[in-house]
From TrEMBL:
Reaction(s) this enzyme catalyzes, per UniProt: Preferential cleavage: (Ac)2-L-Lys-D-Ala-|-D-Ala. Also transpeptidation of peptidyl-alanyl moieties that are N-acyl substituents of D-alanine; [GlcNAc-(1->4)-Mur2Ac(oyl-L-Ala-gamma-D-Glu-L-Lys-D-Ala-D-Ala)](n)-di-trans,octa-cis-undecaprenyl diphosphate + beta-D-GlcNAc-(1->4)-Mur2Ac(oyl-L-Ala-gamma-D-Glu-L-Lys-D-Ala-D-Ala)-di-trans,octa-cis-undecaprenyl diphosphate = [GlcNAc-(1->4)-Mur2Ac(oyl-L-Ala-gamma-D-Glu-L-Lys-D-Ala-D-Ala)](n+1)-di-trans,octa-cis-undecaprenyl diphosphate + di-trans,octa-cis-undecaprenyl diphosphate + H(+)
GO MF annotation terms: penicillin binding; peptidoglycan glycosyltransferase activity; serine-type D-Ala-D-Ala carboxypeptidase activity
Full protein name: Membrane carboxypeptidase (Penicillin-binding protein)
Transmembrane segments: 12-34
Annotated ranges, domain Penicillin-binding protein transpeptidase: 363-674
Cellular component, GO, one term: outer membrane-bounded periplasmic space
Organism superkingdom: Bacteria
Keywords for this protein: Carboxypeptidase, Cell shape, Cell wall biogenesis/degradation, Glycosyltransferase, Hydrolase, Membrane, Multifunctional enzyme, Peptidoglycan synthesis, Protease, Transferase, Transmembrane, Transmembrane helix
Listed Polar residues bias regions: 620-637
Length: 718
């Protein structure tokens, strides 16, 4: 057997010396196939030379990082393969030396394919009548990983990883080309950023983080040798899940090779072998469910970010592609979430309603003029575990499923396809804006009885001979009102008359212009012409809406009529550090994180509405009379600066709202039972949204200069 081995090796000695490796490649790797098929080395070499020699390298999947508005506080990460590309200059010299010693000691001597390794592989394969050794160089391994990472179909993945001679030959052909295209250091950098180390850690950055909670540049000798030893068999040598004896033996093998290559002295090698493998494991966050426990409430904002992301054409042609891009694109995403305002909002919300309550109490804060979402707080724990949740409040479901409290991942504040909640009289803002937009002045006055026979069709208890007959919440509202007092006291019969004058369809269109969408079948049906002309109850807030939408709509008034789509990001950078762009509806290429704003109503209309909106908050309008009382008189004293807003309650107080705004911030707060909308929160709960919103505006703006609302022109006041 020894004689045969020497003969087989010596047969290729002239070729090895001459550097003519194609025939050797075929013979060494595919010897059994050649022998069985009767192929000669000549034909094999021809086939080898005709193989593709251009490696199609696609950027490997990388982890996307999501930060708060400060650009430092990490919310979470998104990935399929946890990887972050780092230049070799940011890697410890130890890991560079260790991976070469472990995987390819002749890396700096060969041109991508190692003739001596091939000869050894030939001997082993010839003796076993099979492919036992493949002589894979580090460059060939990189080629295999690049082909795997660039695969777009299961068949391509299979072709890139299958254990066949044909695959090995392709790798060799491509490795030769790669060595001509890249320097050794470039190949090593690409290899270390592609290799799998176990624990879903792809690349040296993730491996350093997962096993040692540090950066690659900070790896010690013993840590580098441990990681280098994992590449050959990540599961078998895993020191975190297996007996450390195997990992230690493999590490010591790497250290011995480093000594052989001159990277280590015998003394350093011996000393390092005495050190135990000391892990500092970390589990990198992935997706919204992994938001740190101390920032748990941020999970709901994260969920909104995901919902926004999959709607953006900048990230793909459909929702699936966009989510895949989020998990593979390696983005640095700086969100709009302000940690200070978020903490303030959460503190105020939780002080009013604990997470164990079946009633959801939440708050959204938006910046006028940009649409940036500064906070999203709700009295819930962001968690998938509902095993200890309370009883479902819908009697028909109580025996079958748990309620969504305290734990839930339901998007209660906006984003996604959540149905929302009826927002009551907060919708009167849309009627008032429509009227002002149509040229009706703030002084438009109507005698407002306790009950009104409207021009709209109606049925049921609120019907009077086939007409809808709305009534006021209190007899104290009866009398003559203009927009100031009608809005301040929330006089239903005033606003129905105002709606009749301008047209219910105009109020519906105004709501759409300010960002509202229709989620339920009934709302969608009623919002379409010609039914929208007869939707009299619209002004009383019978449509479902989210706090996010309402904060964005009222922010338009604070921003002098400029509506900005709610936006959860301030910056999105691709791995090359460039801002991600998209083509907007006007055909302009702009940053995807740039605020998307448009002038929806004139400056004067917005200022007139803001002036009337001072009345519900206990403030004073600059141009008219709020009369003697209002629905939320505590707001202005609490906020301590000019503030507008509107309360809203639904039939039987099934939900209660307050939407308020200053020049700097807009906040929408609500309380309702999302599991059972018919479960009334009760009148006693209606103050909670008022207080939460007012206190959040106060605390968030503490220390900032006071800004006054500009007065509207005399022409719109009259």
């Amino acid at each position: 057997m020894i004689k045969r081995t020497l003969s087989a090796t010596s047969r290729f000695a002239p070729l090895l010396r001459a550097g003519l490796i194609a025939g050797v490649v075929v013979a060494a790797v595919a010897y059994p196939l050649v022998a069985v098929g009767g192929l000669g080395a000549k034909k094999g070499a021809d086939a080898f030379n005709n193989m593709p020699s251009q490696l199609n390298v696609k950027p490997p999947a990388q982890t996307s990082y999501v930060y708060a508005a400060d650009g430092k506080t990490l919310l979470t990460m998104f990935y399929e393969e946890h990887r972050k590309y780092v230049p070799i200059s940011d890697m410890s010299p130890y890991i560079q030396q260790a991976i070469v010693a472990s995987e390819d000691q002749r890396f700096y001597e060969h041109n991508g394919v190692d003739p001596k390794g091939i000869a050894r592989a030939f001997v082993a394969n010839h003796q076993s009548d099979g492919v036992q050794q493949g002589a894979s160089t580090l460059t060939m391994q990189y080629v295999r990983m690049a082909q795997r990472d660039g695969a777009t179909t299961p068949l391509e993945v299979q072709a890139a990883t299958e254990q066949t001679s044909a695959r090995k030959l392709r790798e060799m052909r491509l490795a030769l080309a790669v060595e001509k295209q890249y320097s050794k250091q470039e190949i090593l950098e690409r290899y270390l950023n592609s290799a799998y180390f176990g624990h879903r850690a792809y690349g040296i950055y993730a491996a350093s983080e997962v096993f040692f909670s540090k950066s690659p540049k900070d790896l010690s000798l013993v840590e580098a040798a441990t990681l280098a030893g994992l590449v050959k068999a990540p599961t078998e040598y895993d020191p975190a899940t297996q007996d450390k004896l195997a990992a230690t033996a493999r590490r010591n093998y790497v250290l011995d090779n480093m000594q052989k290559m001159g990277y280590l002295s015998p003394q350093d090698n011996a000393a390092t072998k005495q050190l135990p493998i000391q892990l500092h494991l970390s589990s990198p966050a992935n997706d919204c469910i992994s938001v740190p426990k101390n920032l748990n409430s941020w999970g709901f904002f994260c969920d909104y970010l995901k919902a926004w992301w999959v709607e953006q054409t900048a990230f793909g042609d459909n929702a699936s592609m966009r989510e895949d891009n989020l998990r593979r694109g390696g983005y640095k995403i700086v969100t709009s979430l302000d940690p200070n305002i978020q903490n303030i909002a959460e503190t105020n919300v939780m002080a009013k309603e604990k997470s164990t309550s079946k009633f959801a109490h939440g708050l959204v804060v938006v910046q006028p003029g940009t649409g940036l979402v500064k906070a999203m707080a709700v009295n819930r724990v962001y968690s998938l575990d509902q095993s200890k949740n309370g009883t479902h409040s819908d009697p028909q479901k109580a025996s079958k499923i748990k309620g969504n409290y305290p734990n839930t991942v339901v998007p209660l504040l906006g984003g996604g396809d959540m149905p929302g909640y009826q927002a009551g009289s907060t919708f009167k803002m849309f009627t008032m804006l429509a009227a002002l937009d149509a040229g009706m002045p703030l002084s438009t006055a109507y005698n407002s009885p306790m009950k009104l026979v409207s021009q709209y069709p109606g049925e049921g208890p609120a019907s009077c001979g086939g007409r809808w007959c709305p009534s006021n919440a209190s007899g104290a509202m009866t009398g003559k009102h203009a927009m100031w007092s009608g809005f301040g006291k929330s006089v239903n019969t005033y606003f129905v008359q105002l709606e009749q004058a301008v047209g219910a369809d105009k109020a519906v269109r105004m709501a759409e212009r300010l960002g509202l969408t229709w989620r339920t079948d009934v709302d969608q049906m009623m919002a379409k012409p010609p039914r929208s002309k007869t939707w009299g109850a619209f002004t009383l807030g019978v449509s479902d809406v989210t706090p996010l939408e309402m904060a964005g709509a009222y922010a338009t008034v604070a921003a002098d009529g400029v509506y900005c789509e709610p936006l959860p990001v301030t910056s999105i950078q691709s791995p090359d550090g460039k801002q991600v762009t998209w083509k907007n509806p006007h055909g302009d290429v702009v940053d995807v994180a740039k605020p998307r704003c448009r002038q929806e109503v004139t400056q004067d209309v917005a200022r007139a509405a803001a002036d009337a909106a001072r009345c519900p908050t206990g403030g004073k309008a600059q141009t008219g009379s709020c009369q003697e009382w209002s629905t939320a008189p505590s707001v202005t004293p609490t906020v301590g600066r000019p503030v507008g807003g509107k309360t809203g309650t639904t039939d039987s107080t099934r939900s209660a709202w307050f939407v308020g705004f200053t020049r700097e911030l807009a906040a929408a707060s609500f309380i309702a039972d999302p599991d059972n909308p018919f479960n009334a929160v009760g009148d006693a709960q209606s103050q909670k949204p008022i207080d939460s919103a007012a206190q959040t505006l106060r605390d968030a703006l503490k220390g900032q200069p006071i800004q006054n609302f500009p007065a509207p022109s005399p022409a719109i006041v009259k």
